Amino acid sequence: MAIGQVTQVSFERSRDQTTGVEVTRVTDDQGDSIFPYFHQAVFTDDGAGLLISSNRSGSWQLYLLGLESGELRQLSAEEGGISQHHATILPTRGLAVFTTGTVVKQVSLDGSGTRVLYSAPPGLRIRNLAPSTDGSSVTFAYQEVLALSTETGVIYSHFNEQIYRRPSCVIMRIDTDTGGAAALWGEREWISHVNVSPVDSDVVLFCHEGPWQLVQRMWVLRASTGQVSPLVEQRRLLETSGHEFFTRSGRVVTQYGWRFHPKARTWVQFDVFVNPDGRSPEAFRYLWGSPNHVQVAGDETRGVGDGAFPTEGFAEGSSYISLIRYRDERAIVTPLCRHDSSWKTQHSHPHPVFSQDDRFVYFNTDRGGRSNVYRAPVVS
What does the pLDDT read at residue 1? Predict the structure, then answer.
């Protein structure tokens, strides 16, 4: 396939045997197909298109899927492929950006043109891309590539060694009109999960990567001043905080947990909503365990996650997509449908997200052998 070429995808519908919800596979099992990492902008402005990474051509490339039409338009044809998770739509621009090697490229959503937006120096790895709400800039961290002795090919095998090696990282902001680059912050810490506030692009959220109980994870940066401060301060080994993201109103949500002592196996887990300045936190407790990745709807009273534990000992809870109700300081969980992912790779992680109108939940899973994108309606 070439840039701009369109393939027709047939949606496949089935009924979830546990919950009775109709689940639709919206990709066609031709190779692995996913939407990129769930903190990025993956829907078009009108909600009718979804950004897709797929290796259907033999290497990972970028596509745009029409969610009603089933038309799959190819947006990249990079030799050696693209980074499967590091792509995002630039809101209001009709454009997307993606990474290939140490290069960030910009492409029209109609596949009509591609240009180099930014090139990082050799020896660096570009992390996830975070657009401003008006699409005028994209912000990300680049990371020094280190040779690691504990990398086995098994997911997360190298985490501890990498955090102790403290790779040099810099948060960069690129003007999407001119390609002008600005360094906003840098340090010898493993930085990832860069997010930009939807209501104030001067506010940048990022994390220090690594096992959550070992790092002070969540940080807020003022781009205009370089001021950096922890968002939710953690006690090492006793508290965790992660998978942070902005709500549409500009609040931050983090999945938070604490335990009584460093060897305790049981964590008390919450979703915490907090202002970027650390004020006015609201904590909602899970009674029986929390999902792995959470996103919330526009009204901030509902969430979705990959994992559902509505009762103690709920069978195969990690194999479900959950709907979450935030009420009376509790996160109340209802199973939406099964995802049955293997969890063996990053592209098999479900990473569920709400559609633009909050009527559907989209998620990735490799339950059929290959990764595909599915959707299920949000039920009351």
Answer: 66
